[in-house]
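B., you asked whether I could sanity-check this one before it goes into the benchmark set. Here's the sequence:
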Amino acid sequence: MNFDLTDDQQMVRDTFARFLDENSSMARVRAAMPSGFDAALWKGLAELGALSMRVPEADGGLGFGMFDAAILMAEAGRTLVSGPLAETLVTARLLAQLGGEQTADLLGRVSAGEAVATLAFRNIADEPVQWIAGGLVAEAVVARMDDHIVLVTVPVAARVAEENLASTPLAEIDFAALPTVMLASGDAALATFAAAIEEWKLLISAGLAGVGHQALRMAAAYACERKQFGQPIGTFQGISHPLADLLCDVDAGEFLVWKAIRDVHDGADSAAAAVSLAAWWNADACARSVAQSLHTFGGYGLTTEYDIHLFNLRAKAWPLVLGDPQRLIEEAGRRLYAGEKAALPEAGDCPIDFDLGEDAKAITAEIQAFFKANVTPEMRAKFHYSWEGYNPELNKKLAAANLLYLGLPRDVGGRGLSPYAKIAAMDAFENEGYNNPAANVAQMVSLIIHRFGTDELKQDVLGRIMSGEVICSLGYSEPASGSDVFAAQCRATPDGNGWRIDGTKMFTSGANLADYVLMLCRTNPDVPKHKGLTMYIVPLKAEGITIQPVYTFQDERTNITFYDGVKIPDSYRLGEVDGGVKTMSASLELEHGGGFSKYQRKMLEAAETLCREISYHGKPLIEDGSAQARLARTTANLWASELLTYRATWVIAEKKPNLAYGPMAKMSSSEKFLSDARDLIDLTAPLSLSKRPGAAAEINQFYRHAQGSTIYGGTSEVHRSMIAERGLGLPRTRA
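And here's what the prediction gave me:
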């Protein structure tokens, strides 16, 4: 897996970034209005090779790949480049591919920045009058005319300036009376032209991601400076949390472009749909990002003195020249579910790689073989996503096969899988319908005992956990503290050679099944709350413990546990007295990025199954265009969640800077899981109301399960604050 640019690509990005910072400053962007074209900037881009970036080397170009062009477009979006850059990149390539000698002179002048050429998106035989991006300054347009690809010469008189939303060089061109030259005919030529439009979708999407990122940076900077009620407005969650949400969406949008380019490069079956989804996602995410960023400026954002309005308008102007972006999600639905094909461009080199590697394939095969050999239909019937799916016999077999503690380091006795292989393993378990939260908690407890436990504790408890004989629960949350575990009030007081524990723990999931609970207790009330805590292992069968069930509407049992004078030896203490935070930090070694994509995938598969079963106007529901579009939207959300999780995993595995990427993956995927669960239970109603075994029961269950995904493991609000602070540099939003 790789999210890094090559050294050469980083140099390309830095070169264009420096040039555009100087030559496409907001002052220059404003100066280029109202025509929306900066001739000096254009000439400078040409001198750097930007305009011929996608032209093959044999035709005098640089011969770079789509990914390189996407890097340029992200910088162009960040700086609101004044000119039809995405259109020029694909048109210059078309001139080289289809024009030959008859367009060599034009191609040379376009590459040198001496002329502008653009393209028409629709068949000019059917629609002779079209809005053309760059049409105001383009002397030539490449277009489809029925079965031919033609070059249309556009004289100055045919290019009429017209006020438009973002002061871009847009013009309505009437092609009916303009001179044309046929470049090529037939299926191959049509496919080449169609592929150019697909490339444009990706390049404009990359540009929109750049627009969105810069707008969010500007909003965050303003929120750090602007004060209200005596403090920066960035401390207000009403300001910071929406920006955190949108940072996740804009990052995901950039990665969806990368995924589409990678899919095209690999010839993946989903490549055409990936192009459509990337274009739809970025048009939507960028529009929401610039609107929220402008809102952050308040009334000042409405004034022309502040630059944020330029981003707001450009975010809409760039994609709408193609038409309604909603058509793109419909197109993706047809490509995914109706067999619609699309001609795709040649991707060129792509360093970005989302493959989990050979170890991931090996562990997946091993898990599949284990389940085939060891799991009976009776066992499968009791599988459940929660602790209620715990099976003692299966737990021991998994331990014996070294498949129980996959992320636990080898020095502790675990499998020690790489972060990438662990993702694949979790997906493999989900594909078998098996989820094991008991193992996830037990491996964390094992690591803490190994790092901080006494010899007696290791002898009494650690071996039993590692063999799969027993499981453990977590005693962190309390009725009055919620996600703020450091506010724990459950007391541990010295008692002879040991400790007495009194208090209550809430959401002690699995306590009814476990032998031990890992407890965080207050040992010193006279110091700051995070300094007066100590961790213990407490046997749940000890005298003075009461376990009371708490049932959720998700078909899940959790517990409230009461501790009344519970006595444990000092040897069951973990780490130093009042050193609980340090002890707890050992669990960070098991961090893997988080995310709910494995559930999102299974939910999508269940919805697809139901859509094939449900009849709608005499046909399977999955043949309905609206249903296809909604399933495509869920696919986009699934891919976005996967990509954010992959990024979080990659930075951990490769020891890269980590700007709250784990919280981004968890928060964003849980919110998408919840929104899609609501939509898919609607789409498949009324059958989805049933708990009938099979896909209906799954959709029903996923809807209920998703409600808790934004709560446990830290609420979305907690993670939004972390994202705002670490991802956007906003001030602390919690007291």
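One thing to flag: The chain has a mean pLDDT of 95. Otherwise nothing jumped out at me.
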